[in-house]
Write a structure and sequence with these properties.
The chain is of the alpha/beta class. It has twelve helices and 13 strands. The model is unreliable at 2-23 (pLDDT under 50).
Length: 322
């Protein structure tokens, strides 16, 4: 956080209307956005409680309450935006913790929008004590969300740079507990797509399931005969023989688990009808080019959400004359 003096040349004039702006394309295609917002509010409440169980003693000692301030939160590096659709629940949770709060927050950027270093992501207006109190928790959420979006965008950009417009980047269920919807929404903001949201969302027949039924064809047939409701079916295969069985069974999505690049090439060369092929296991930015094929449909990457690196974000505050 950088505190600018009264009358600083860096004082900015932000819009006078506040609250979430019209949500962008990412929010429009996300059918679980209400769950994102609900989970953020549930997470933000305990976050403020652990950060200020008995208030902000530094702000109290410096007698910041009652002083007017304006601030902007900027990114120090190029990033995709992730936060315009869910920052309101964070602020609502802060107001619930501090009923006397006087704070308004506005985001001029749409989720999924790529911005350059130096761009203002959020503008804050209100009591200086509230601005400094909300800063760290808001930055913690933003750091995770934008970090996931940025990593996803790096994979998407690497694929598109080869001229491949078909292969999609997907996440996994390797998310931080409690942050499932948040993390997966961040992947959308980076230009990726979501794998199944949870165990209720899709069938995924894995190695242990295959062992119980003695093969791909029998496992797929059993699942189809016993599904309690219609959902998408995917199967994980470990070798070319299992792949052929899965194609013959017309399984809609086939995951090539830990296939070597040459095996991926052979798999993509096989006739497969309407079956989609997905590569998973050990894919990184350094080796993804070796796995890419023009007709590969999907690549799932666990590191999008389990190895998050936060971007460099800063909050600049200008105290105003009372």
């Amino acid at each position: 956080m950088l505190w600018l003096p009264v009358g600083s040349a860096q004082h900015f004039e932000g819009p006078k209307s506040y609250g979430s702006k019209t949500e962008g394309v990412v929010s429009e295609v996300c059918n679980y956005l209400p769950r994102v917002r609900e989970s953020v509010k549930a997470l933000a409440g305990p976050a403020f409680e652990e950060d200020m169980p008995d208030g902000d003693i530094t702000a109290a000692a410096m007698q910041l309450r009652g002083r007017n301030g304006r601030a902007h939160l900027i990114t120090r590096e190029p990033v995709p935006m992730c936060g315009a659709a869910w920052f309101d629940p964070v602020i609502d949770a802060y107001r619930a913790h501090e009923p006397q709060a006087r704070l308004e927050v506005y985001s001029p950027i749409e989720d999924g929008q790529r911005v350059e270093a130096g761009t203002t992501l959020f503008e804050l207006d209100g009591d200086v004590a509230d601005i400094v109190a909300v800063e760290r928790t808001l930055l913690n959420f933003l750091g995770r969300g934008i970090g996931i979006a940025r990593q996803t965008a790096a994979f998407v950009d690497r694929i598109r740079a080869t001229g491949n417009q078909r292969t999609q980047i997907l996440d996994t269920r390797k998310t931080l507990p409690g942050f499932r919807y948040f993390d997966k929404y961040a992947v959308l903001c980076g230009g990726g797509q979501n794998h199944r949201l949870n165990l209720s969302d899709q069938v995924l027949i894995k190695e242990n399931h295959l062992a119980r039924f003695g093969g791909v064809a029998r496992a797929v047939a059993h699942v189809r005969a016993n599904l309690p409701r219609p959902v998408e079916i995917q199967i994980e295969v470990c070798n070319m023989d299992q792949l052929k069985e899965a194609v013959d069974a017309e399984c809609p999505i086939i995951m090539l688990d830990n296939f070597e690049p040459e095996m991926v090439r052979r798999a993509c060369d096989m006739p497969r009808g309407a079956c989609l092929l997905e590569v998973s296991g050990g894919i990184t930015l350094d080796n993804i080019d070796r796995f890419l094929q023009p007709n590969l449909d999907r690549i799932s990457v666990g590191s999008l959400t389990h190895s998050v690196i936060a971007p460099d974000l800063s909050l600049l505050i200008t105290e105003e004359d009372s």
